Amino acid sequence: MEMSKRILIEGLKLGDQDCVRRWIEELVRMNGRELRRLFIKALENKEMMELNRLHLDHHYSTDVITFDYSEKGFVLAEIFVCPEVALDNAKEQGVDGMQELRRLIAHGLLHCMGWNDKDPEQQKSMREAEEEALRAYEAICST
Known about the structure:
Layout: H1 3-6, E1 7-10, H2 17-30, E2 34-42, H3 45-56, E3 64-68, E4 74-81, H4 83-93, H5 97-112, H6 120-141
Parallel strand pairs: 1-2, 2-4
Antiparallel strand pairs: 3-4
C-alpha cells in the first residue's frame, strides 16, 4: 500500500507532510514493526476533553490520546492530539511548538510498539525514546 494511504494526518501542520510520513515510517521500522495504517487528527480542547471523558473517564483535556489496534509486528492506530494543550506545554517547557507536536506523535506511536510510561523508570525510557525519535526527524527532514 502506498505510504500516503497508510498515514492520514488531519488538521495538523507538522512540516513537510511527505517528510513527516517518511519519519513515521522510519520510527515504526526502528522499533521492528511494520505500519499498517495510522490516523492522526488534531482536536480542539473541548473535543479532546470529551474524548478523554468518554474513553478514559478523565474529566479534563490532555495533549494526546492513542487508540492502539496493533497486532504483533504491525502498527494500526489512531492518535488524537490537542494543539492548544501541546502548545501550552511547549511554552511552559521552553520548547518549540512544532517539536512538541512531533514528540506527541512519537509518544503515541511508541505506545503502539510496546512502550509504557506508568512508572518513573518507564517514563524516563519513554522520554529517551521520544528524544531519539525527534533526532530521527531532524536527520530525515533537515537534509
